[in-house]
Amino acid sequence: MTTAGRDTGLRDAAREIGEGVLGPNADDVDATGRFPTESVDAFRQVGFLRALISVEEGGLGATLDELSDVLIELGRWCASSAMILALHSIQVACLVRHGETEALAAFRRRVAAQNLLLASAAAEAEVRGDVRSSVCAVRADGESFTLHKLVPVISYGSYADAVFATARRTPDSAPSDQVLVICEKDEFALTQTSDWDALGFRGTCSPGFVLDARGPLNHVFPTPFGDLSSETMLPVTHILWASLWLGMAKEADARSRRFAQQAARRSPGSLPPSALRLSEMALGVQQLDDLLLGARARLATADADPDYGASIAYATSMNSLKVAASGLLQEIVQKAFLICGMAGYANHSPFSLGRILRDAVGAQLMINNDRINVNNAELLLVQRGR
Ligand SMILES: Cc1cc2nc3c(=O)[nH]c(=O)nc-3n(C[C@@H](O)[C@H](O)[C@H](O)COP(=O)(O)OP(=O)(O)OC[C@H]3O[C@@H](n4cnc5c(N)ncnc54)[C@H](O)[C@@H]3O)c2cc1C
């Protein structure tokens, strides 16, 4: 099965929203760096915010593959809006796959019933992108907790109904002994510490914050964050990010193909010089598509076979997905510039590639690719066997 040939009801809904809501507002969202309220309203209306939650619990019961298909479609129209849905859905996936307690199940049902929007506070000012290490800690006080965390970036933090934060399990725990904790809006204070005037993904509205939260202790996930990350958060994050990046690549491909076709019509009988690049573009998009399909299949295998899920081969492949997909996206967009030339360089032409290029740069920095490569190198140095 290829992602390209798949057509589900959800994907149709994504195309409709993309064309009718995300696309018409994308340039304004980008130019003004505003939160795409209309996109998130549309996601709420069609149920995308609760897509991964089971039907019995009030969700759509969609599979991760179906959500990945939705993000491929949305990524074509507005990468910021698609990124917001991806970041939200990563938290939902953790809640679905690791929220086995009654308290977490009750919160999950509320996410579905009230279409809550979930944000992430994984990075920390002191450790930057080293998300498997925390300085802040959960402080228990009877049945409640408090948390004080300096977060360099929380996407749509000011608009979220809850923030999923990582922290040390207790003030005495080691930096890597982390938990994931749900902080709800009516129980936290967010003090903004920086502005978000970034090159790309401008609509994600992602400044830094000091997060001061309190809540019930049963909003701390029982699964150690290390396990939760390797089983769910990391692979789901990389799969959903790669999905919307594939959508961006497909849009760059479509714009450059339209441009080359127009050029070909102007000079019948001769091949425009840029046309050869189309073949390279098609190969790049196919590679990205195959990379994503392979990762989706590997996650399914890991779920069915815990030994494979715990293997270094699986961990490095899921890390490599993010590095390779973000790199391929950048290459594809660069090729699109060579095809479209000045029409792609211009900001207000039908072939403009500026926003896609600026968003594509961010893909390499969301957990810095160099940091991921260092992690992979450490794993590979201790890998045994073939
Ligand atoms: C659009 C966007 C949205 C985001 N949304 C969120 C969000 O909602 N929540 C959230 O928590 N975060 C979010 N982030 C931020 C998160 O992805 C970043 O990883 C984090 O902010 C740290 O970034 P950094 O570049 O400052 O630090 P680092 O990752 O520390 O990178 C800084 C430098 O350190 C280098 N480096 C590489 N490896 C190592 C190493 N092993 N040790 C030390 N240095 C190393 C890197 O190469 C780089 O030069 C978002 C980022 C973007 C771009």
UniProtKB/TrEMBL annotation:
InterPro entries in alphabetical order: Acyl-CoA_Oxase/DH_mid-dom_sf (IPR046373), AcylCo_DH-like_C (IPR036250), AcylCo_DH/oxidase_C (IPR009075), AcylCoA_DH/ox_N (IPR013786), AcylCoA_DH/ox_N_sf (IPR037069), AcylCoA_DH/oxidase_NM_dom_sf (IPR009100)
Species per Swiss-Prot/TrEMBL record: Microbacterium horticulturae
Record carries keyword Flavoprotein: yes
Family: Belongs to the acyl-CoA dehydrogenase family.
Protein name (database record): Acyl-CoA/acyl-ACP dehydrogenase
Acyl-CoA dehydrogenase/oxidase N-terminal domain residues: 10-112
Keyword check for Cytoplasm: no
Family matches, as SUPFAM superfamilies: Acyl-CoA dehydrogenase C-terminal domain-like, Acyl-CoA dehydrogenase NM domain-like
Reported cofactor(s): FAD
Keywords: FAD, Flavoprotein
Ranges of residues in domain Acyl-CoA dehydrogenase/oxidase C-terminal: 234-362
